[in-house]
Amino acid sequence: MGMFDPIKGFGVTFSTMFKKVVTEQYPEEFHPTAPRYRARHQLNRHPDGLEKCVGCELCAWACPADAIFVEGGDNTEEERYSPGERYGKDYQINYLRCIGCGLCVEACPTRSLTMINFYELADDDRRKLIYTKEDLMAPLLPGMEEPPHPMRLGDDEQDYYTYGPELERDRSGKDEEALQ
Asked: Which domains, and CATH codes, for the chain?
C-alpha cells in the first residue's frame, strides 16, 4: 500500500466536488427507458378481445422465484373468455418475489404473457404488489366495451388452434397429409 493512496482517493473526491450537479426531477419529468427494456408483465388479448391465456400454468412452472399463481377454468358457451376449452380463471403475479428473468414469457405457448416497458412498481403496501388478472390484462381496443361472445375463429386462427403453429405454417396441402 502506497503512501500516496489516500491522497489519490481525496483527489477523486475533490475533482467531483466542483462539477455541475445533475438533478432529475423524476416524478414531474418522466424520462423513458431504453426501448428494449422490459419490467412489468401484461396478459394479451386476441384482436376480437378474447383472452389469449388458456390457463395452462406453464408460466407458473417456469418461474424460478415461484411468483406466479394460475388457476384454470373451463369455458362454456354462455361464458367464453378465450377461444379454447380453458381460460385463466385466477392469475396473480407477486412482484415482491418476481426477479424479472422473463422465463415465464418464454414458457407461454400462446404468447399471452409478455413484458412491457413500464417500471414504476414500487409501493408502500405489500398487498398492492400482488397484481391480479384485472391489473395485468391488456386494455380492450378502442370502441370495444367487451369482447364478442361466442368467438368466430378466422381461417388462420382456426388452423393455429387445430393443428398447432408448426403445421399451420405450410398451407400447401402437406399439413393434411401429415395429420392423417
From this structure: 37-161 (3.30.70.3270)
